């Protein structure tokens, strides 16, 4: 009987906890520094077009490259939720680029970011929307 209860209730709960590790919220201040954007909304970014984000948490600023154009913006943190971050619409250069689809996806997705989650290791972070959907997979530069 104990084995049946374990298989029916405890084992599925244990497996669920193991697979939900990537859903662990983390301190947004761990974003400090330079990151490569390796995935946008579930699509891998080609190495030759790697967008970058450089977070300055002390000044609450974000600078980077959306694949071709440079952007500058500000971020808002919530003192009551250490994982909360909002990225304001920013200023960008206006060069014509070979892959404007990637550029557009990066810039539009930035405005949907609401929090940060831990990645699979200390050199990976996930930026997610309000529902917890992964918008960006970042790897430390």
Describe this structure in words.
- Helices cover 21% and strands 38% of the residues.
- Strand 5 (70-78) and strand 6 form a beta hairpin.
- Residues 10-21 have low confidence and may be disordered.
- The protein has a single domain (25-140), classed as Beta Barrel (Lipocalin), CATH 2.40.128.
- It has helices at residues 2-19, 100-110, and strands at residues 33-40, 43-44, 52-56, 61-65, 70-78, 81-87, 91-92, 115-118, 124-128, 134-140.
Brief summary:
The protein has helices at 2-19, 100-110; strands spanning 33-40, 43-44, 52-56, 61-65, 70-78, 81-87, 91-92, 115-118, 124-128, 134-140. With 141 residues, the protein is of the alpha+beta class.
| Main sheet specs | 10 strands, antiparallel
Q: Output the CATH class name.
A: Mainly Beta
Radius of gyration: 18 Å
What is the mean pLDDT? 88
Task: Return the string of H and E elements.
Answer: HEEEEEEEHEEE
Global outline: globular
Poorly predicted spans:
10-21
Strand proportion:
35-45%
Number of extended strands:
10
> What class do helices, strands and sheet pairing give?
alpha+beta
Helical segment tally? 2
Q: Cα distance, first to last residue?
A: 53 Å
Question: Which CATH architecture would you pick?
Answer: Beta Barrel
Domains (count): 1
């Amino acid at each position: 009987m104990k084995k049946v209860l374990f298989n029916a209730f405890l084992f599925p709960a244990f497996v669920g906890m193991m697979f939900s590790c990537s859903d662990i919220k983390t301190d947004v201040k761990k974003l400090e520094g330079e990151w490569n954007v390796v995935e946008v909304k579930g699509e891998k970014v080609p190495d030759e077009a790697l967008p970058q984000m450089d977070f300055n948490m002390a000044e609450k600023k974000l600078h980077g490259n959306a694949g071709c154009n440079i952007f500058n913006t500000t971020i808002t943190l919530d003192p009551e939720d250490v994982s909360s971050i909002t990225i304001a619409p920013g200023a960008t250069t206006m060069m014509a680029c070979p892959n404007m689809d990637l550029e557009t996806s990066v810039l539009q997705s930035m405005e949907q970011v609401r929090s940060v989650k831990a990645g699979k290791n200390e050199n990976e972070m996930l930026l997610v929307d309000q529902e917890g959907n992964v918008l960006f997979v970042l790897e430390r530069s």
